[in-house]
Specification:
Length: 432
């Protein structure tokens, strides 16, 4: 089983720091310069000052964004704007959000989870990671000795048995609430009752955990732990550096949705729908449709991974493309499982973008990524891509099957919306 424990998190004293809405921030990987500045302006205690500290002219190895984050954290603790909870706690989160006009509520809880090297235990990654973000996060870990933001993990629980043990609490305790720049409302409750904590921990027995978001943070936690161990800073199995802070959500939670990640493709200048059809047939069945809405509705109604849709800039035309040659994927991606081969994003990249289209018209594809049809349509109006591709979202079944056999999904296969805010709880890697 994954080793899951309550912990004494650090949280804002709202009487000193102000309203939680002004203190929280999205994780670093979705913050641009404009949003960073907006969050800086919101409060001198906003978590962005730890999560993604500004670079400044004249930064040196001894005075830089990471050392400033460390100084800021120490200052907040010294003036008691940030305090450590006195009891070991599980932190229950509910995120209320709207996608394409429909409101959802996603629920889970934050705990400390024992770090395990991938491939050795019951914690499974599902995407590849990059070295740059890991080095950035490691510098922040070293400077602050703190989990600033949580990893997002999923566990199989078709009946939501584990969270059902918690749910009655939500009606007995008023939550702390924050609203982010996208309008997502996050509510936070605390569980300190040892019996209830024990019930949750026992309910998680034998359950694997699949990392949905935060692979870089998890791998950084492992690296930090190994460095602390080598430096004699890990006193035993219960040492804080052996753990990372993780938000855990049931795969059966009704508010758990995976958004598609559509592709805006450059590198095929002048590509027309007829050229596209000639390139993709006979491996795809091509059907012309009126617009992007009709194309996306066809994908949603179909419900499979085999139906894609394309818009060609050169003649302003939409088509759907149904893949009908799994033997081609078996040939082109023979090192991967059938589950991996059948993913819409796999079919798009391996068969269409990297093989069939370049073989017919030349060119080298380069992709940008968006999640909503409206974002695709905006890019088309702006003329910013030669080819737009709509793909169906991967399912939780794909995540569980592919990651469960220790295989990584293609990059940008999943987008678990919304992100989990930074600033709700911080986890010390030094202090119990």
């Amino acid at each position: 089983m994954a080793d899951i424990r309550a912990f004494r998190g650090f949280r804002y004293d709202l009487g000193r720091a102000g309203a939680l809405t002004d203190l929280v921030a999205p994780p670093y990987d979705v913050v641009d310069a404009a949003l960073q500045q907006k969050l800086y302006d919101a409060s001198p205690y906003n978590a962005i000052r730890l999560e993604l500290t500004k670079e400044e002219p004249g930064d040196t190895p001894l005075n830089n964004r990471y050392t400033r984050a460390s100084q800021t954290l120490s200052g907040w603790q010294n003036d008691h704007a940030l305090r450590q909870d006195t009891l070991r706690t599980l932190y229950v989160l509910e995120q209320e959000f709207t996608v394409e006009g429909k409101t959802h509520k996603r629920r889970g809880f934050m705990a400390r989870v024992l770090l395990e090297p991938f491939g050795t235990g019951r914690i499974f990654p599902h995407e590849e990671t990059m070295s740059g973000p890991k080095e950035d996060r490691l510098k922040l870990y070293r400077a602050t000795n703190m989990n600033i933001s949580p990893v997002f993990g999923l566990y199989p629980d078709d009946t939501n048995d584990v969270f059902n043990r918690i749910e009655s609490l939500l009606y007995k305790q008023l939550p702390t609430e924050a609203k982010d720049h996208l309008g997502v409302i996050t509510r936070l409750w605390t569980i300190t009752d040892e019996h209830l904590i024990g019930s949750v921990v026992s309910g998680m027995a034998e359950k694997p955990v699949f990392i949905a978001d935060g692979h870089h943070r998890y791998e950084t936690g492992l690296k930090y732990r190994d460095e602390a161990l080598a430096n004699g800073m890990v006193s035993g199995d219960d040492a804080p550096a052996n753990f990372c802070m993780m938000m855990l959500v049931s795969m059966g939670d009704p508010g758990l949705i995976i958004l598609p990640t559509h592709r805006l493709v450059s590198g095929f200048p002048g590509l027309t729908s007829e050229q596209l059809k000639a390139a993709l047939e006979p491996h795809f069945e091509i059907t012309k449709v009126a617009n992007g809405t009709e194309a996306w509705e066809a994908i949603e109604m179909d419900g499979s991974q085999s139906l894609l849709a394309f818009h060609t800039k050169a003649d302003n035309t939409w088509v759907t493309a149904r893949f009908q040659n799994p033997e081609l994927m078996a040939e082109l991606a023979k090192d991967h499982s059938e589950d991996w081969q059948e993913l819409g994003v796999s079919i798009l990249h391996v068969a269409a973008l990297n093989k069939l289209i370049p073989a017919k018209v030349g060119g080298t594809p380069a992709c940008k990524y968006v999640h909503l049809l409206s974002e695709v349509e905006d890019a088309i109006k702006a003329g910013s891509c030669d080819l737009a591709a709509l793909v169906p979202p991967a399912t939780m079944g794909h995540v569980e099957r592919i990651a469960g056999q220790r295989e990584k999904m293609p990059p940008k296969s999943t987008y678990f919306y919304p992100k989990i805010l930074t600033g709700l709880v911080f986890n010390s890697l030094k202090t119990h």
